[in-house]
Automatic annotation (TrEMBL):
Molecular function (Gene Ontology), one example: oxidoreductase activity
Protein family according to the UniProt entry: Belongs to the HIBADH-related family. L-threonate dehydrogenase subfamily.
Taxonomic lineage: Bacteria, Pseudomonadati, Pseudomonadota, Alphaproteobacteria, Hyphomicrobiales
Top-rank lineage group of the source organism: Bacteria
UniProt enzyme class: oxidoreductase
NCBIfam families, sorted: ThreonDh
NAD as UniProt keyword: yes
Protein name as annotated: L-threonate dehydrogenase
Signal peptide as annotated in the record: none
Functional note: Catalyzes oxidation of L-threonate to 2-oxo-tetronate. Can use either NAD(+) or NADP(+) as cosubstrate, with a preference for NAD(+).
Organism in which the protein naturally occurs: Ciceribacter thiooxidans
Catalytic activity: L-threonate + NAD(+) = 2-dehydro-L-erythronate + NADH + H(+)
InterPro entries: 6-PGluconate_DH-like_C_sf (IPR008927), 6PGD_dom2 (IPR013328), 6PGDH_NADP-bd (IPR006115), HIBADH-like_NADP-bd (IPR029154), HIBADH-related (IPR015815), LtnD (IPR050006), NAD(P)-bd_dom_sf (IPR036291)
């Protein structure tokens, strides 16, 4: 498919979310370059029809749009302004789309520094998981200058089902994402607690899943994460340490605002304990494994797993 918009796009970060973003852009016909520290990830992107370059500055050379799909603000800082940073080499008038979850003050700081280089910055955290990313159906909670949105609208349309334009300055999108992550983290922790509690009650947890997903106690996270537990599959779609980080940001903001976040704080401790038990890089449903270990319960294991 030809690139009908003429926009050159660079995606930095080809993990589970970034790979879906990059391949969705390819399907939509964009000239897309991928960049990642993993040679395997870049090879997969090349196999999908893209171009991959390990150095962010080389990958973003003259790019009109750079999408950063990295873990946190520190990685965003490195990608944008580090020794191989992309800001210096982008096409003038280009746009940075920043997808990482971070505090609103950090997002505003990045916006100021990017704009000082003659570029635009959109604070655009994402939600939906790897499946939605691969299907081009993400939800994007974005804020930035209206002119920047106009420039990248075809890109957003290619990767997202819903794009919320939430304000004309960075930090607003980040704040919306923080609220989302509070709920997501609490719901994952509650889902893991509920299914292991059902196991402690001697219930058939496959049947529990069937009944709860048809009942008022269901949540998106229960419906999405509990199958990982039922299958004994803890390969990371979203890792424990992601929510250790994100709920940590929630906790820091709450402390600064002097706002009590007792439920989120309890969930944070559950993720921290799971990470401390050696499961930080495993799927975030591993909270259930920690609870099972503490309680002496046996959860299902994937076939062939010892």
């Amino acid at each position: 498919m030809s690139n009908q918009t003429g926009l050159k796009v660079c995606v930095v970060g080809l993990g589970s979310m970034g790979m879906g973003v990059a391949t969705s852009l390819l399907r939509a016909g964009f000239e897309t370059t991928g960049c990642d520290v993993s040679e395997d990830a870049m090879a997969r992107f090349v196999s999908a029809g893209g171009r991959a370059i390990a150095n962010p500055a080389d990958a973003a050379q003259d790019a009109d749009v750079v999408i950063t799909v990295v873990v946190n603000a520190a990685q965003t800082e490195t990608v944008l302004f580090g020794e191989c940073g992309v800001v210096e080499v982008m096409a003038k008038g280009g746009v940075v789309l920043s997808f990482a979850t971070m505090g609103p003050d950090l997002a505003r700081g990045f916006e100021e520094r990017v704009q000082a280089q003659g570029l635009d910055y959109i604070d655009a955290p994402i939600s939906g998981g790897a499946g939605k990313a691969a299907a081009g159906q993400l939800t994007i909670m974005a804020s930035g200058r209206p002119a920047a949105f106009d420039k990248v609208r075809p890109v957003l349309d290619a990767i997202a089902q819903k794009v919320y334009e939430l304000g004309d300055r960075a930090g607003i999108g980040a704040s919306f994402k923080i609220v989302n992550q509070l709920l997501a983290g609490v719901h994952i922790a509650a889902a893991c607690e509920a299914i292991t509690f059902a196991k402690a009650l001697g219930l058939d947890i496959d049947k529990v899943y069937e009944v709860i997903t048809a009942s008022a106690g269901n949540s998106w996270m229960f419906e999405n994460r509990v199958p990982h537990i039922l299958e004994g599959d803890y390969a990371p779609r979203s890792a424990i340490d992601i929510f250790t980080k994100d709920l940590g940001i929630v906790s820091d903001i709450g402390r600064d605002l002097k706002f009590p976040l007792s439920i989120a704080s309890t969930a944070l401790q559950m993720f921290i304990m799971t990470s401390a038990a050696g499961m930080g890089r495993d799927d975030d449903a591993s909270v259930a494994r920690l609870l099972a270990q503490v309680s002496g319960l046996e959860l299902p294991e994937a076939p062939g797993r010892q």
